[in-house]
Amino acid sequence: MKLCVVGLGYVGLPAAVVFASRGIPVIGIDIDHRKVEAINRGQTPIKEPGVDTLLRQAVADGKLTATTTHDALRECQAIIIAVNTPVEDGVVNLTQLKNALETAAKNLNKDTLVSIESTVPPGTTEKIAKPILEKSGLKTGRDYYLAHVPERIAPGRAIEELTTAPRLVGGVDPPSTQRAIELYTTINKNLYPTDATTAEFTKLIENTYRDVNIALANIFALMAEKLGIDVWEAIRLANTHPRVHIHLPGPGVGGPCLTKDPYILITAASVEHAKLIQLAREINRQMPTHFTHLVLTALKRHSINPREATVAILGVAYKGGIDDTRETPAQPIIHLLKQHVAEVRAHDPYTQETFGATPTTTVEEALENADAAAIVTDHPQYRQLDWKKLAPLMRHKIIVDGRRVVEPHTAIEAGYTYYAIGYGKAFKI
Ligand SMILES: NC(=O)c1ccc[n+]([C@@H]2O[C@H](COP(=O)([O-])OP(=O)(O)OC[C@H]3O[C@@H](n4cnc5c(N)ncnc54)[C@H](O)[C@@H]3O)[C@@H](O)[C@H]2O)c1
Ligand SMILES: CC(=O)N[C@@H]1[C@@H](OP(=O)(O)OP(=O)(O)OC[C@H]2O[C@@H](n3ccc(=O)[nH]c3=O)[C@H](O)[C@@H]2O)O[C@H](CO)[C@@H](O)[C@@H]1O
């Protein structure tokens, strides 16, 4: 059996190299010739731990080749579609997916499985993909097979999660579910069969649940700031209750999924009370502004004129331990701070991106003569910092912690004034 993977981005490429590593010959297809050329040279166009090694090996073994030509679909008995489904002005754009399906229909072999991994509105596989693919003259569930197998990988852990994280397998009919299980069982034994529309819906509600839960944590944080309470302590205590699992507040929710999937869900099924989900999105989108406000309040409380101040942003990636800056809250935070503050510097151990802030290569360089350290990302390296040793570098010893990377008592003992999202004790007079 040969597998074609259409779309070699953050989802398609890890899948391609993992299938190839299990001995399955894979043809990767992408319209971006630079990606295709890089892959054929054995170089990964995306940064994802482990992909580089598996890719080099797969190309060297002749198990993975990439092409821009969709005719290659003719050689495959299984096709994974992993093109992007971006949300624009709150509405999902399925153009890439429809184009990929049209070319698949023109090159579809009898008995082939088509698996859609892209995140899509419920009903897309059944009502959009199926009619397009049946233009081939083949009948679904009899002549060829169709499933939605949503991708659940978290960036930074893709390779591990592809083989271990539970996976939904939703065929449009039982034979399609069965064929999809046969394909995915070669890389992951933890499969949950269902139907395509349930799989599509489930993918969206998982990320929506996470976004709404984080929004709730963010509201609690704002309340704690008013009440003079430490929300981190309160959430830790609340979560000792066996039926409570409150997520963590922060300076914003970034990444390619939580910022997009709730909108796909709301638009797909417009029920009145979906405004809960909409509101959660708005709360999370507001957090970078709130964090910026905390930084400016901290400067004011220390009688520092922002126009003469330097703020060091620690962390540009959207979450800890990775270099991914898609939809990162650091971008609006830097943008807003630059409107008020003389100099905004940025440091990140994983990425060079600074969104217009002055780049720095070490934490020491970022903090030298700075008035405040503003921690945006929970990189593991930041948890190891010796704040006592760093203190003499700074002009003013102020920490504004978006992620509870520093324990308040550690900062205070090292001579800092400590502010944080949800740390109401900083404001208690
Ligand atoms: N990035 C993630 O971590 C993640 C996780 C789970 C689900 N998803 C979902 O997976 C899908 C893909 O996301 P991504 O981040 O990999 O996107 P991406 O933009 O990184 O990759 C998509 C790739 O598809 C290619 N492409 C577009 N049209 C094509 C066509 N007709 N034929 C061949 N190639 C084509 C693009 O050139 C690009 O390389 C989205 O629906 C996304 O919501 C993403
Ligand atoms: C349901 C779920 O788990 N889905 C995962 C999610 O992966 P992700 O990479 O987007 O990672 P998250 O951890 O959700 O982070 C997003 C942003 O939220 C911030 N955050 C997080 C937790 C918290 O308590 N408080 C916060 O503020 C964090 O800093 C970051 O900015 O979507 C992928 C694509 O669909 C999935 O495949 C993947 O399984």
UniProtKB/TrEMBL annotation:
Pfam families: UDPG_MGDP_dh, UDPG_MGDP_dh_C, UDPG_MGDP_dh_N
Keyword NADP: no
Domain of life from the UniProt record: Archaea
Gene3D superfamilies named in the record: NAD(P)-binding Rossmann-like Domain
Enzyme Commission no: 1.1.1.336
Domain UDP-glucose/GDP-mannose dehydrogenase C-terminal: 312-408
Swiss-Prot/TrEMBL catalytic activity: UDP-N-acetyl-alpha-D-mannosamine + 2 NAD(+) + H2O = UDP-N-acetyl-alpha-D-mannosaminouronate + 2 NADH + 3 H(+)
Keywords carried by this UniProt record: NAD, Oxidoreductase
InterPro entries: 6-PGluconate_DH-like_C_sf, NAD(P)-bd_dom_sf, UDP-Glc/GDP-Man, UDP-Glc/GDP-Man_DH_C, UDP-Glc/GDP-Man_DH_C_sf, UDP-Glc/GDP-Man_DH_dimer, UDP-Glc/GDP-Man_DH_N, UDP_ManNAc/GlcNAc_DH
GO molecular function annotations of the record: NAD binding; oxidoreductase activity, acting on the CH-CH group of donors, NAD or NADP as acceptor; UDP-N-acetyl-D-mannosamine dehydrogenase activity
Gene Ontology BP term (one): polysaccharide biosynthetic process
Family assignment from sequence similarity: Belongs to the UDP-glucose/GDP-mannose dehydrogenase family.
Protein name listed in UniProt: UDP-N-acetyl-D-mannosamine dehydrogenase
